[in-house]
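Friendly challenge for the regulars: who can give me the structure tokens for this chain first? No prize, just bragging rights.
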Amino acid sequence: MELSGVFLVFVVIAAVAILILVLKTLFTVRTYTAGVVERFGKFNRIVRPGLHVLVPFAESVYFVDLQVKQAQFSVETKTRDNVFVQIPVSVQYQVLEDKIYDAFYKLSAPQKQIESFVFNSILGHVPKLSLDETFEQQSGISVAVKTELDTIMSGFGFNILTALVTDIVPDVKVKAAMNDINAAQRAQVAAQARGEADKILKVKQAEAEAESKALQGKGIAAERQAIIDGLSESIEHFQGAVPGATSEDVMALVLLTQYFDTLRDIGTRGGTNTIFLPNSPAAANDFMTQILAGLRGNNPSAYTFTSPPPPK
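First reply, four minutes later:
Bragging rights claimed.
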């Protein structure tokens, strides 16, 4: 019984030792990962994805991720016009497969190193630009940061895929002031547009009014010409019907008739004032005399029409 117990313990110990030996000997490397094998602390070789064998207790393996990684930073700096801004930067980087040794041994904290270079690049560009120029050249800043990072980090075994300036964030008060300036400029443009529209409208109204007055003048002239023609024709008929009647008699009768027609129109319309007129029959002759005297003035020939000679 004692021999069997000792043998069982020996078997168990041997199995554990073999298991430990297997674990120390065999290992696998995942896809998009590289293995750095050291022998007694010294670099020995780089292994690719798959199953590999180590020398037990003499070699050890360290894994290097070859996938694309992203680091995000926020850089605070001042523009040329003394405005402090926060600039978020997103950097995507990857270990170069042919420089795995450099990426593993040269840098202990790659992301911290990238952050330092990003700060240095941003602080070298943005203080030379005004705030407006910083917004306008956002893509140019991204290109400059990527170019400088790629040049520096390639020596450490890293490839910089992108370095994006994702935003430019000024102080809240500065942003509010910029919005006020933009709103004022837009209001100014709108006021100018309204002023131009009012100017055009007034010009068009003036042109329409001038054309309307011109047409009214033509209408009045035509109306007066028609009245004159009608009066001339009436005088001819009146002289033909009343032998011995002169043009002055006819004009006096027409003017007196129009005068009384005017009084009639005033009386028939609402809201007119009271007019006092003499009511004697002889007043008509006085009216006619006064009208002719007022119309003639100092020109005795005024309103005198020369009728054509009677037919022989």
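The radius of gyration is 56 Å. The mean pLDDT is 79. Your move, everyone else.
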